Prior knowledge:
Blueprint: E1 6-9, E2 12-16, H1 22-37, H2 43-50, H3 52-57, E3 63-69, E4 72-80, H4 91-96, E5 102-110, H5 119-133, E6 139-145, H6 151-156, E7 160-164, E8 176-181
Parallel strand pairs: 5-6
Antiparallel strand pairs: 1-2, 2-3, 3-4, 4-5, 6-8, 7-8
Amino acid sequence: MDRREQAEVGPYLVRHARPEDVAGARSVMLDTxxxxxxxxxxxxxxxxxxxxxxxxxxxxxxxxxxxxxxGKVVGTTAVNSRGPAHPPHPRRLAERYPSGRTAQLLRVYVxxxxxxxxxxxxxxxxxxxxxxxxxxxxxxxLHTNVxxxxxxxxxxxxxxxxFDARTTGEHxxxxxxxxxxxxxxxxxxx
Length: 190
């Protein structure tokens, strides 16, 4: 999906974010950190949320895809060129997915009352299409909090597990599982 295009998913629009979407996207993200994850905003993990425009809208290899209903952002999916940070993630993952060459999918959040409408799949599909067109990416990496209902099943339907932190107690005991999506996969998503 080109940054100017949008896709309809029932009554929702899925498109790349615009400046007017920033406040709504930030609200979805912060509400997810507090209500879903239970640990709130953590500056060293969530610095992109403070500067959404600079991180996603103003960078040629990054993007933020949003799901919008009646002008209100109800879902987000982001792409940036940073691999997983060590710490909190294992060093072997940081080495396998180096910044610059890795497209990291993150902030794949849908407000609970808007789930089960295909929004996450449509946003991930748009993000993967963006990644396929962006220069220099060699892999698509993501990690998820599998304590969020539906998250683990969703990612297992699209991606290949590369590490389950629950088995080692790494990442502070959070239910974190790491995945990779093949660069050739955008048509499969959704």
